Amino acid sequence: MGSSTWLGVAGAIVVAGCSAGSASAPAALPANPAAPLDCTPVDGLAPHLACTGLYADWASKTLAPESRAYAPAVSLWADGATKSRWIQLPPGSQIDTSDLDDWTFPLGTKIWKEFQLGGQRIETRMLSKTDAGWTFAVYRWSADETSAPLLLMGEQGVNGTSYEVPPINDCPVCHNGRKDKVLGFELLGLGQAAAEGLNLATLAREGLLTNPPPSTTFALPEDGTGKAAPALAWLHANCGNACHNGNSTALASFTGLHMKVLASQLMPGSGAAPTVADLDTFRTAVNVPAHIQLQGQPCRRIAAGDSANSLLPHMDMARGGAAGVPQMPPLGTNVPDVAGVQLVKDWIDAL
Ligand code: HEC
User: Fold this and answer.
1) 271 CA to centre of ligand 1 in angstroms
2) 205: which residues sit within 8 A by CB, 6+ positions away?
3) Which end of the chain is less crowded, N or C, counting CB atoms within 10 A of the terminal residue's CB?
């Protein structure tokens, strides 16, 4: 079961490769950009970003007043791209937070994430909760940023770089990891001090959560190394939140290596402080034997005190299999997050 899941992902990557350059025909883009846009849905999706409701005025890129900006404290590495995010909740609605680890969003929720490379808008991804379930869409900006039509098949080698826009079929591979698909708009991402815009405290204050948590600002626990918290935050955002967690629909649930920090671990109850040793990340990784070998030798997921012989940072640095171990994450990235992985190595070496 585990390995077949893996092959599924590898297959998705190959499909992405085949579709490279096919720059799927921009749907319903008028030849004259000044002409009114045809917003007739294509495959149930708005054919152009201008049709999605993010902006009140497309020409000036003025956001709609109900588009609320937010940024999780630590986010998924995106091959060096910078990102902006907005959420729209239907007026008067609330997010069901009765399960603090798996929020359920009201019907009509829309979330956008815009990616910029070198200061230029490249793509805007969108999640939208409709009667028919969640839809995933990607809009690819033109070089002059006047147009952003739907792109179904993804694109590789954007602007001569190794940056890739994933095909829409790949979106659920990661987003299925949460019961209600949304990944970064969550307890820990919005509850750490570095979260921006619509954060956990603001959500609670505005009455947008059915069950606000007892605390709205969290610090991850530290251990004797003094280097645990940033490493744990990076592993949560890049590995645990989407795939390496206990949800059966999460891609890497079967590995038993779980790196999502859960509400019960952040707030152990009766006023007790959270501890690193209680986190899944520690319990399922540190000194736990790995199923994959490193340079032909058995190894541990994290070998305390020895990052060079720990599998985890090797996979996080690997891209394209060149290092002899599979790359992590397995899709959507061609450049490693050197600074982020260094946080993990620093923690491991100090353990
Ligand atoms: C490699 C895994 C992965 C793939 C593939 C992926 N995403 Fe995401 N996405 C994430 C993670 C992790 C976050 C949260 C962190 C962040 O916002 O940077 C996220 C955040 C988002 C958000 C902001 C709302 C949220 O869930 O936090 C949107 C919108 C989004 N993705 C859309 C898409 C679309 C559309 C696709 C397919 C074209 C896609 N994503 C493919 C992992 C992925």
Assistant:
1) 34
2) none
3) N
